[in-house]
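Protocol step 4 of 6: structure prediction from sequence.
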Amino acid sequence: MLTSSATSSADTRIVIGAPLRVLAWLSFLAEVIIIGTGGAVRLTGSGLGCSEWPLCTPESLVPLPEQGIHGIIEFGNRTMTGLVGILALAVLLLTLAAIGGAALVKRAVWFAIGGVVAAVIAYAVTAPFGLPAFGFFSGALLIAVLVAMVDSVRRTTRRRDLSMLAWIVLAGVMAQAVVGGLAVVTDLNAFVVGFHYVSSLLLVCVTAAYLVRLYAAPGARERAVPRWFAILTHVTGLALAATIFFGVLTTGSGPHSGDADIVRTGFDATILAHVHSWPGYILAALVAALTVSAWMLKLPVRRWLLVLAGAILVQIAVGVWQARDGLPEILVGIHMVLASLSAAAYTVVVLNLKQPVDAG
């Protein structure tokens, strides 16, 4: 459960303020919402509503009137990316301030300044040659963030878990922006778009993991469930991953290509829909077995398994409904968001398989 605990270890004791807790929750919610807005882009045929990246058109950052609703929807999703990035940066800075004080924050800021300088140089060097200058700009920034992450985590002596997770979210958001641009310049390549979605889903899981660790007591942890239960839980994770993987392939080969002029010529969506359902039903059976076992044994993960079981049941119901009704856009969008919430709930379950050594 996400319950606050006091730490008994002086070397890991930090003060978590209300602003950090609020922003961490907002970051998680924003990661979920951007999956919904990204789905709206695809399901309304607005994937190329903005024909360029990072500009919307060759002449304008924002959509022009002639681009209509598709341009607005696509640009809205890009704007949401900016909000997600701001929240990730705010969570990171507050985390660094809590675990390392001003010194750690200042060091991260200096890395940021260096990254911006390097990015500007990369842009200036590549632009005259007709190369994708903004891609090099973004790449230089991302490299700077990764270097700063390594440096910061190495210098962190308290709550390294929070530092690592916060850095991963920020780096992931920046990488996601680049992948989104790649999806546009490749005319919505099915595999790039699918990778874009899976990456967003993983960021939902990482922000959920951050919340769990934020409220958990630090220090050494030990397994709080029987070994067979832990093994079965990880097997369930494989079933969940397989379900999501084949779901992404199914959507990538189906009618919702993201733009009216994009024709999918990949796998047979009808066959994939059946293949997608097989690990889904296995997943449901495994989650049911885990939930019943957890309640019979009164394991600490039992309540979160109820949440996971509920999400999976709703997900199956929506999946069957959309398949029988010809894949209506709203149901496909709900299915996409529910997949991320199911993955987040599973993440919380896994992280609660262990508890602090002195918890009992």
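Step 5 (inspection) to follow. Confidence is low (pLDDT under 50) at residues 1-11.
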